[in-house]
Amino acid sequence: VRDIAGNQVIANSIEAAKQEIQQGGMISVALEREGVFPPLAIQMIAIGEEAGNLDSMLMKVADFYEDEVEQAVKALTSVIEPLMMVGVAGMVGVILLSMYLPMFAVFDELG
Fold it and tell me: How many C-beta atoms lie closer than 10 Å to residue 61's C-beta?
């Protein structure tokens, strides 16, 4: 799991929690002690440990955070799209001005 984390802080926390769990500690307590993981995830893991269905609780935690990331990406995309349109329109405007302003200057000198 340490190699899959993709984040050095989380990887270090998982490694520290792993050592505590191997010594007989509860997963939820070990993860909470690290202070890196969200309280909701820790609470759901604790409930799963107490109820004896940790695997299904971990799946629920994963689904919850996948949905949360998906919503954040959608929100970010909905903000970025209009900004990109304004940026492209601005670049087109600059290109048009750089083409037509010299022509207008020539027309003024001729006329």
Answer: 19
User: Residue holding tokens 């500690």?
Assistant: 25
Paired tokens of 106:
């020539």
Tokens of 18: 């792993």
Task: Render pLDDT for 48-73 as a digit per residue (tens, 0 to 9).
Answer: 999 999 999 999 999 999 999 999 99
Neighbours of 27 (CB within 10 A): 18
The Cα 12–Cα 6 span in angstroms is 11
Going from the C-alpha of 106 to that of each of 64, 98, 109, the distances in angstroms are 64, 13, 5
pLDDT in tens, 20-56: 999 999 999 999 998 999 999 999 999 999 999 999 9
Nearest Cα residue to 16 out of 3, 5, 2: 2
* Nearest CA among 14, 11, 38, 9 for reference residue 27: 14
